[in-house]
Description:
single chain, 145 residues, mainly alpha, two-stranded antiparallel ribbon, elongated, ribonucleoprotein, Ribosomal protein S7, ribosomal protein
Amino acid sequence: MLDIPPAEDPLLQYLTNSILKHGNRKRASRIVSRMLLWVHTFTRAPPLEIVREAVKTVSPSVRCMTHRHGAKNVSKPIALSEKQRTRFGVQWILEASTAKSGQTLEERLAREIVAVIQGSSKAVDKKKAVHHFAMVNRGNAETRV
């Protein structure tokens, strides 16, 4: 396979940093570039836009913080910044890719990204569950603290 270095894109750099283990940046960068090749192979479309769309699709807009209010735990939904949303999206895609078929990390990651675009991913299900939990608990946002 070709070893094309990934384009200088903040999302790809963040993805590389998330994959990075034991300081081996060159290996993580190679995984990301090969993942882009796999995405292109599966979709026959520009891979960078597909990766951006997948992360944007999986990124949650809210999360719930749990705190004690008297004797019970109360979950309170909190809006996320763009950077936090991207972090959760990339993290969930990486977690869901471990269950995909494929021998290498780049292939599994590419399969997961394509699955996110098609809507049949565990990461999309997780986003829906988090959003649903936040909507159920939105009445707690106005509670007295």
